[in-house]
Amino acid sequence: MTLFPDKKDCCACGSCEEACPKSAISMREDGHGFIYPIIDNQKCINCGLCQKVCAYQHIQETNEPKSVYAAVSRNKSQIKKSASGGIFAALATFVLNRGGVVYGSSMERNGNKFIIRHRGITSMEELPLLQGSKYVQSEIGNCYKEIRSHLVNGKIVLFSGVPCQCAGLKGYLKTGYANLILIDIICHGVPNQQFFNDYVNYSFPKLKDISGFVFRDKSKGWELSGRIDYGQNHHKSVIAGTSSYYTLFLDAQIYRKSCYSCKYASPQRPGDITIGDYWGIQKEHPELIAYHKLNIQNGVSCIITNTEKGDAIIAEACDLITLFPSTYSKVANRNGQLVHPSQEGRFRQQILDIYQTDNYSGVDKFYKKNYRLQRLIHSVFSILPYSVKSLLRQLKS
Ligand SMILES: Cc1cc2nc3c(=O)[nH]c(=O)nc-3n(C[C@H](O)[C@H](O)[C@H](O)COP(=O)(O)OP(=O)(O)OC[C@H]3O[C@@H](n4cnc5c(N)ncnc54)[C@H](O)[C@@H]3O)c2cc1C
Ligand code: SF4
Ligand code: SF4
Ligand code: SF4
Fold it and tell me: How many CB atoms lie within 10 A of CB 80?
């Protein structure tokens, strides 16, 4: 039994592992830290179910975009904890208020490691656990099994994840459920957890008792910068342009192999609703800022509805979200992954090989040598006020 012909054909959605009736499949790390399903031949009975549920290889999406919006949550405190305009939190609130269960990615500290994994929540108090982007592959664990049981028991379930996870869940369930709402987030690719943890431990050796890592810290506005929480309520900013992890991530050098041929980087999306950052909103919709007084400093999202159910949910949740009509092509202008997959960075194989032989210290050396000028420019840029940075970004685009 072969689960995938080539590494590019497996996105690690975990559907085969959860579907196997003999628990013969487990997810294991390869030499670069990416997880892949491995079959225990002693347990396998050759039933073929693992192949049938593999949406990434065998199921074609047919949805087409229906409505497109620029959008922000009406709850300002929810926006601040979110990566973009807080749309996930608004839709999660909509579902939790109706007694539903919400699944998304959470990040916990365990010893000297961060564990990024999907989990379900049933209360508003738990919602912050799922808010914010974690730019690392999130483990699915046994979420699909739990979700099926909730759906069968009539609960409303909202599942939010990268598109291949939404498709993985659909492949696992095999049948549609009226009480399931799927949100896929625009995704350009994921690095793995081992690489991220090695980055943190190597790059911040002096920080004691690290407790949190916020990938999208909004304290300086809507931009790509991070924050590490450590000790007794201490924080350290992480400037994306001078961080090896962020730079290699944004430069498409360290994604999983499947991400460079991702079949969901297109208008045929697996979710009822797609959400992402509305990058370039100033250029695409200057009227929203000039006449509608849209405040973009804390982030603006894009929403794309892909099914009738998605349209209906957005209409019903409109008291939680401010919506402005837009178009797919306007959103895609600064979000190329809505049209094509990320192009593999030219250093990817070299970096991963260095990582395998010399650990993260080798990666850090490579980064410092090859991104010298970029680091310098970003160090200077990072000390400018947010308004000046916004203006420069506008001029550049
Ligand atoms: C790996 C990755 C790549 C991304 N690439 C892009 C991009 O190229 N363009 C773009 O416009 N937006 C991208 N995003 C999405 C963007 O960062 C925001 O998550 C999105 O706009 C939703 O923001 P929000 O304010 O509505 O909610 P938030 O509260 O910020 O979003 C939280 C939701 O994101 C999900 N999530 C967070 N981390 C992960 C993860 N590792 N795996 C699966 N789900 C996760 C959670 O389940 C939660 O539902 C990416 C996100 C991730 C995780
Ligand atoms: S079901 Fe998911 S994890 Fe399993 S082989 Fe297919 S893509 Fe990989
Ligand atoms: S063929 Fe059946 S028993 Fe074997 S790994 Fe796949 S699902 Fe499990
Ligand atoms: S780019 Fe595609 S394959 Fe890679 S994590 Fe995102 S959705 Fe999955």
Answer: 14
C-alpha 315/C-alpha 92 separation (Å) is 15
Could you identify the residue written with the tokens 């400018």?
A: 384
Q: What pLDDT shows up at residue 373?
A: 86
Report the candidate in 384, 225, 249 with the shortest Cα–Cα distance to residue 299. 225
10-residue mean pLDDT profile of the chain (397 residues): values are 94 98 97 98 97 95 96 94 96 98 97 97 98 98 98 98 98 96 98 98 95 93 91 94 96 98 97 97 91 87 98 97 97 96 98 98 97 84 73 70
Q: Does the beta carbon of 288 lie inside 6 Å of ligand 2?
A: no
Q: How many residues would you count in the chain?
A: 397
CB 38 within 8 A of CB 190: no
Handedness of CA 102, 235, 196, 264 (dihedral sign): positive
Q: Which two tokens stand for residue 49?
A: 């179910």
Give the C-alpha separation, 137 to 339, whole Å.
22
H or E segment and range at residue 366 = helix 348-370
What CA–CA distances, in Å, run from 342 to 124, 162, 189, 327? 35, 14, 7, 22
Residues in CB range of 335: below 8 A, 6 or more apart: 186, 276, 277, 279, 302
Q: Tell me, what amino acid is at 146?
A: E
Ligand 1 binding pocket (C-beta < 6 A) is: 82-89, 104-105, 116, 130-136, 138, 160-162, 185-188, 190, 275-277, 301, 335, 337
